[in-house]
Specification:
Glyco_trans_2-like; Nucleotide-diphossugar_trans; Spore Coat Polysaccharide Biosynthesis Protein SpsA, Chain A; transferase; alpha/beta; single chain; 35% helix; 10 strands; transferase activity; 302 residues; Glycosyl transferase family 2
Length: 302
């Protein structure tokens, strides 16, 4: 068996979500054979240290993995810098990684799917990442393959390779020219109506997102993501303390309850137009408006 990809977990101040994330990961069939790297970000303010310490106390009780490495940051790096620096650090030792944040529940076969896909597509120049997460798309109910492809990466339980990661321009140094290239702006918009605005907000310092820069790189080089047909990940980070996606209902999806541990992939990757259409609709302007209205009308359902 090929060496399994290390798991990289990023945590902050949410003890309950962290416990649920780790307990689900411990139930994975390949957990005991996998190395786990945990990065714990520091507090933004002194009065936030207690919650972070509670999380760190729990982290040091974790068992069930081949090796566990914990790195605690003294200062607050923020989610974007934590992930960029943490993944880069692990990539110095490994050729591939599987990345999770502290608000993701995984199915027992999540690591099976991720490792098999990472091994299968390691030499594919077109595949930028593997996603264990999949949105609840109507066409997937009758879809017979174990995977499908998309043009927008997911940050909810993903994996990639060192060769792909080290080529990212996190400064987006070409943004000044991209900003006035309206054809390219429109093409980026077609991937998701939120894409151009998020990138602009990132450049202006209004948001702190590694994922929008990751997605821009994928768009710029016309790369793809391989998604699990039946989601191996579910997102639980919808509380007010969530760094991203608080209250977003479009991420709710059925979690794989099957026991399949062997997945079939294809070298010849063909896009399913209907799935792509349904995927894009999740990020349409109308869908985003609906999400905001539901969040506003039902503030206690987060």
């Amino acid at each position: 068996m090929k060496k399994l990809a290390p798991i990289v977990l990023f945590t902050y101040n949410r003890l309950n979500e962290t416990i649920r994330t780790v307990e689900a990961l411990q139930q994975n069939y390949l957990a005991s054979d996998s190395e786990l790297y945990i990065f714990s970000d520091g507090a933004k303010e002194n009065n936030g240290r207690n919650k972070i310490q509670e999380v760190r106390d729990y982290l040091h009780t974790i068992k069930g993995f081949e090796n566990i490495y914990i790195k605690e940051s003294i200062k607050n790096k923020g989610l974007a810098n934590s992930i960029i620096e943490g993944v880069t650090e692990v990539m110095d030792k490994h050729e591939k990684v599987i990345v999770l944040e502290d608000d993701l529940i995984t199915s027992p076969n999540f690591l099976n799917f991720m490792n098999q896909a990472l091994d299968f597509y390691i030499d594919s120049p077109k595949v930028m990442s593997i996603s264990g997460y999949s949105m609840n798309l109507p066409s997937l109910n009758n879809y017979c393959q174990d995977f499908y492809i998309g043009h927008r990466a997911s940050s909810l339980g993903w994996g990639t390779w060192k060769e792909k990661w080290i080529n990212i321009d996190w400064n987006v140094s070409d943004y000044s020219s991209f900003r006035y290239d309206f054809r390219q702006q429109f093409e980026f918009f077609k991937i998701g109506s939120d894409m151009p605005g998020m990138l602009k907000s990132q450049i202006k310092g209004k948001i702190d997102s590694w994922a929008i820069r990751w997605c821009y790189h994928q768009f710029k080089y016309n790369l793809i993501t391989v998604f699990a047909t039946i989601s191996k990940v579910n997102h639980i980070g919808i509380s007010e303390e969530a760094t991203n996606a608080a209250g977003a209902i479009k991420f709710h999806t059925p979690l794989d309850t099957g026991k399949n541990t062997n997945f079939l992939f294809q070298v010849d990757l063909k896009e399913n137009k209907q799935i792509t259409k349904e995927f894009k609709a999740k990020f349409s302007i109308s869908r985003r408006v609906i999400d905001k209205l539901i969040k506003k009308l039902n503030p206690n359902n987060h």
